[in-house]
Design goal:
single chain; six-stranded mixed beta sheet; two-stranded antiparallel ribbon
Length: about 375
């Protein structure tokens, strides 16, 4: 492992950026906290490239110079990248456009959501130092143990990527990974849509009429205030409080105080009257149509097909040694059966692998058969069968 450099001044960061822009591959990881804030608090960025390893301190530096690296041709290598991408986009204003996620790549080789430690040990024989889940990455100065652990998270990513890439190419699955990576890059990141916040509180799903209208309005308000104050939504108003307010519909601050789940935090932040006003407006002027939580139901004649198709897709995943969730989830199958034009199984490699065979099964062109040694198989149906 190259000796790690702790980067705390702009000049040093500029030197690192120049070296990274010249590298064809680099591994990157972040350390952050998100216990009480809406947005993750970035505490450290680790980047390793052939011949170098930098630990960049975002508490001392503006990280926007890294956007130049991310827009360049170099291949960024990350593990379980989704949350890191969200953090980098917020702090740097950009994310790597040429990216591979080693956890996703490993899924195309039969691994099931492996940890980085598992992958490094099995693929490279490298043992990561033991992690301390209670480490405070925002405290300064960072200890030697913290720096060693942080550096180890990226030190072998380039070599790991080379190993996984070679195996994927042998199996002809590189295009599959490229398509999956593009899906990840296209995902929405950052703040959630306030108008959809109510859907994440399961106790609201049975509400109807004005109660549901109030629930939608209060949940949306809570999300907006959480973004504004950079607080986890439950520290603005608990889920129980949203439910209680939705059903109780308080008309005064005193009534609001008596609702279970509403505590002093809401009142101390001078937000209580806002809640009362939101309730009054939503109760008097509910939306004309409240969006349904549920997806359109499957036609009754297709419902029996779901467990059969699920079993066959599981068999395909085992045969191909691909993580099942990457190939197709139950939601993917139901979207395909409903005829959803945006269904993942209707496009790309998934369509070729399972989507088109499922269509042929539903059209009666093939049938499912069970082989004692081979499991479930699709077989052509002779004309006149049925």
């Amino acid at each position: 492992m190259a000796e790690a450099e702790l980067v705390t001044d702009p000049g040093h960061l500029g030197e690192v950026v120049e070296q990274l822009c010249a590298a064809d591959r680099y591994g990157i990881d972040t350390e952050f906290h998100r216990e009480r804030t809406y947005f993750a608090q970035l505490a450290l960025v680790q980047i390793a490239w052939p011949g170098g390893l930098a630990l960049i301190d975002p508490l001392a530096l503006d990280l926007t110079p890294l956007a130049r690296v991310f827009s360049g041709p170099g291949r960024a290598i990350m593990h379980a990248a989704r949350q890191d991408l969200e953090v980098l986009e917020r702090c740097c204003g950009a994310i790597p456009h040429n990216l591979v996620d080693t956890q996703l790549a490993a899924g195309f080789l039969g691994y099931t959501s492996p940890s980085l430690a598992t992958l490094l040990e099995r693929e490279l024989g490298v043992a990561l130092p033991k992690a301390d889940r209670l480490t405070d990455w925002l405290r300064r100065p960072l200890t030697d143990a913290q720096l060693t652990y942080a550096a180890a998270d990226v030190a072998d990513l380039v070599e790991l990527d080379e190993r996984l890439t070679a195996r994927l190419e042998e199996r002809g699955r590189t295009p599959w990974l490229e398509e999956a990576m593009q899906e990840m890059l296209n995902e929405s990141r950052g703040a959630r849509e306030p108008q959809d916040a109510w859907r994440r509180i399961k106790e609201l799903r049975h509400l109807k009429g004005r109660d549901l209208a109030v629930a939608r309005a209060v949940a949306s308000w809570r999300e907006l205030r959480a973004i504004e104050l950079d607080l986890t939504p439950r520290f603005v108003l608990s889920d129980l409080g949203v439910v209680g307010v939705s059903v109780g519909r308080p008309a005064t601050v005193d009534e609001l105080r008596r609702i279970r789940g509403v505590d002093g935090r809401t009142l101390r932040n001078s937000l209580a009257q806002e809640v009362v006003d939101i309730v009054a407006e939503a109760a008097v002027n509910p939306p004309r149509q409240v969006a349904s939580v549920a997806q359109p139901e499957l036609p009754s004649e297709l419902r029996p097909a779901v467990p059969l198709v699920s079993a066959w897709v599981s068999q395909v995943a085992r045969d191909l040694q691909i993580e099942l969730a990457i190939l197709a989830t139950r939601a993917d199958l139901e979207a395909l059966l409903r005829g959803d034009p945006d269904a993942r199984l209707a496009h790309g490699w998934r369509a070729d692998t399972v989507g088109e065979p499922i269509r042929r099964l539903l059209d009666g062109e093939v049938a499912l058969a069970f082989e004692r040694r081979g499991g479930l198989r699709l077989e052509p149906r002779a004309k006149g069968d049925g």
